[in-house]
Write a structure and sequence with these properties.
Blueprint: E1 2-7, H1 14-28, E2 32-37, E3 53-56, H2 66-78, E4 83-87, H3 89-101, E5 106-109, E6 124-127, H4 130-138, E7 147-149, H5 164-174, E8 181-186, H6 199-207, E9 212-217, H7 224-235, E10 241-245, H8 250-253, E11 259-262, H9 271-278, E12 283-285, H10 291-294, E13 301-303, H11 310-321, H12 323-340, H13 343-360
Parallel strand pairs: 1-2, 1-4, 2-3, 4-5, 5-6, 6-7, 8-9, 8-11, 9-10, 11-12, 12-13
Helix pairs in contact: 6-11, 9-12, 11-12
């Protein structure tokens, strides 16, 4: 099969991480893969196996670059591409244009719940969780037959194995002692992620006598970083809140966390949650995206009720003070990762959906 992935995000984030993993895996399974990306984007600077074709494209911003759309479509036509898979709003808009003007099926990944009109102009939408699918079917009114739940996957070898050495190095990198109890928060620091809502939980946990610290690794955006600092000063925990900014070593930092912690307002199929579980971390999160069906309170993590956070504080206190309980939560998180998020069954499902869509367009897969 000849597959073209269009990824319009510039930075390193969940969309580019999952997209680059899919490119590599489909190539490893014998498919011919083309990756189309913006000039100077993070993903275009990564190392891909020989045979993966990289095509820089000026996609435009608010207005599509129609000349580039014609140029790249002509290239893909010459190369005999069978299916187009788009990742990101800019890429999705290109896919919607080609949906009308070409006989190749177009698949869009729904990485966020945004009610764009273009969602109606794709052969299929891959939703990373039932939560996401329900929204697109019921709110955006995309026909249910076009929306398929396809979870993200993570390669085990990309996740550092837990070790005393890895933990010690991560703690040095974060400037924290081994005795600290670390709530790890990974992802862009911005309003939708709502990290400031975690500061009162940190404050309450420290009030229980736990030397708890909240470490945030991610690019700053909007007013949220200032809200976090202001809330921390107000509650007297500014020395326990660590805003690291963007980090290239974020995977290594996971080894220094005791729990993955997120108070986000909205997610779909969070890569960070999956990677954290793979790194043996229990997940404490607001119940969005895949969390309601993935995280079971007191088994592999905890679902936060921000309106009544007492249960969250109690769970974190037990993690910090009961080593046997913490070890069992970590083991359960890892077990669920292995059962749900390793690549092979997910890739087989994607291949099957690609084949159906190609044949529905009257082409041979």
């Amino acid at each position: 099969m000849k597959i073209a992935h269009i990824i319009s995000h510039n930075d390193h984030n969940g969309v580019t991480s999952s997209g680059s993993a899919l490119v590599r895996e489909m190539h490893a399974r014998g498919h011919e893969v083309t990756l189309i990306h913006r000039p100077n984007a993070w993903i275009g600077k990564q190392s891909f196996p020989e045979g993966v074709r990289l095509v820089p494209m000026d996609m435009g911003k608010r207005i599509l670059n129609y000349g580039e759309c014609r140029r790249v479509r002509a290239l893909l036509d010459d190369w005999g591409v069978d299916v187009i898979h788009t990742h990101g709003t800019g890429a999705d808009r290109i896919g919607a244009l080609w949906y009308w003007r070409w006989d190749r099926p177009v698949v869009a990944k729904a990485a966020a719940r945004i009610p764009h009109f273009h969602w109606h102009f794709h052969d299929a939408i891959f939703a990373p969780s039932p939560y996401t699918k329900d929204w697109y079917v019921n709110r955006v009114r995309v026909p249910e037959r076009r929306v398929h739940v396809v979870t993200n996957f993570v390669h085990d070898h990309t996740i550092p194995k837990p070790s005393a050495e890895g933990r010690a190095k991560a703690r040095v990198a974060m400037g924290l002692p081994d005795t600290a109890f670390v709530l790890g928060v990974v992802g862009s620091v911005q309003g939708r992620k709502n990290q400031s809502a975690g500061v009162p939980i940190l404050h309450a946990l420290r009030g229980k006598g736990v030397d708890a610290h909240m470490v945030l690794a991610g690019r700053f955006g909007g007013e949220e970083p200032d809200k976090i600092r202001a809330r921390a000063r107000e509650l007297g925990v500014e020395d326990a809140v660590h805003l690291l900014g963007h980090r290239e070593d974020v995977m290594d930092l996971l080894a220094g966390f005791d729990v993955a912690f997120t108070t986000t307002k909205d997610e779909q199929g969070s890569i960070v949650v999956i990677e954290s579980m793979g790194a043996h971390l229990p997940v404490v999160s607001t119940p969005v995206g895949m969390v309601p069906v993935l995280i079971e309170d007191g088994v592999n993590g905890h679902r936060i009720d921000l309106a009544a956070p007492g249960a969250t504080v109690a769970y974190l206190e037990r993690l910090a003070t009961d080593p046997a309980f913490a070890a069992q939560q970590s083991a359960n998180a890892r077990k669920d990762f292995e059962e749900r998020f390793l690549p092979d069954p997910i890739l087989t499902r994607i291949e099957g959906l690609y084949t159906q869509l190609i044949e529905a367009r009257g082409r041979k897969a």
